[in-house]
Design brief:
Elements: E1 10-15, E2 18-22, E3 36-40, E4 61-64, E5 82-85, E6 91-98, E7 103-112, E8 115-120, E9 127-131, E10 135-140, E11 143-149, E12 160-168, H1 171-176, E13 189-194, E14 201-209, E15 225-230, E16 236-244
Parallel strand pairs: 6-13
Antiparallel strand pairs: 1-2, 1-3, 4-5, 6-7, 7-8, 8-9, 9-10, 10-11, 12-14, 14-16, 15-16
């Protein structure tokens, strides 16, 4: 934890019914997962009544929690009506195809303050830009195409499909289609897909999702899916990757 010298803060670790005041040097507890913390500049602040982490000078973003959402609540605590989060911007996710010899970029999703950007490494190099004002552009074969408008970000009212496509992931594709190599570029999340185990093709869908509405995304029932949900951003991002065909034998 970093403490600004002009803002002397007090740190409180607490459980329901218990409060422990420590300094900012960081005391190690054996079961920190059971504790919450607050950083406060007011020594008289009622930490026991707080339900969200507060950082002085940086108020946290809030998202309402639907009444029917299934959430984990600490024993003895009331069910919260909203959650606090600090969005990470930019936030970048990358899916990589490997065959044990080469590593190729398959799909990358970037969330910035200006919008959501999705890129696909297929032969046509499809890119989608979904800007915060709702305008959407496609970039296909180096041509930029306007595809109209969608609800402005981030306060969408329902899940919105940002981009979807299918792609073969065979060794021939990895070798001959000149897909970009993955060379350990910086990313928040890197997910490997191994074509030695997967079928010869994949279909993906990238969704922008209002917080806690992730279960509303329609799922195909005839193809197994890998589902990746990111709550670091608002809206949330849900990526569903379907296996097309029969898996290879190990």
């Amino acid at each position: 934890m970093s403490i600004h010298p002009q803002h002397p803060l007090r740190v409180f670790w607490y459980q329901p019914g218990r409060l422990l005041n420590i300094d900012a040097n960081g005391v190690i507890f054996p079961h920190l997962t059971r504790w919450r913390y607050i950083v406060a500049d007011d020594p008289h602040e009622d930490c026991l009544s707080a339900s969200l982490t507060k950082v002085v000078g940086t108020p946290m973003n809030r998202a309402p929690i639907p009444g029917n959402a299934k959430i984990l609540v600490e024993v003895g605590s009331n069910r919260p009506s909203e959650m606090g989060y600090d969005p990470f911007a930019p936030f970048r996710m990358l899916w990589v195809i490997t065959n044990g010899v080469v590593r190729r970029k398959f799909l990358w999703v970037t969330i910035r303050k200006t919008g959501i950007y999705v890129a696909h490494a297929g032969p046509d190099s499809l890119h989608t830009s979904y800007h915060t004002d709702g305008t959407v552009h496609w970039k296909l074969r180096k041509q930029k195409l306007s595809v109209g408008t969608r609800p402005a970000l981030p306060n969408i009212s329902e899940p919105i499909l940002v981009q979807s496509a299918s792609m073969a992931i065979t060794d021939e594709v990895l070798d001959k289609f000149q897909l970009a190599k993955f060379e350990d570029q910086t990313a928040d999340t890197v997910i490997y897909l191994d074509n030695r185990m997967l079928p010869g093709g994949l279909h993906y869908q990238v969704w922008a999702v209002p917080p806690f509405r992730h279960s509303e995304i329609p799922l195909m029932t005839d193809q197994p899916a890998h589902i990746h949900l990111v709550t670091h951003t608002c809206p949330w991002i849900e990526v569903v990757i379907y296996e097309q065909g029969t898996r290879r034998k190990a």
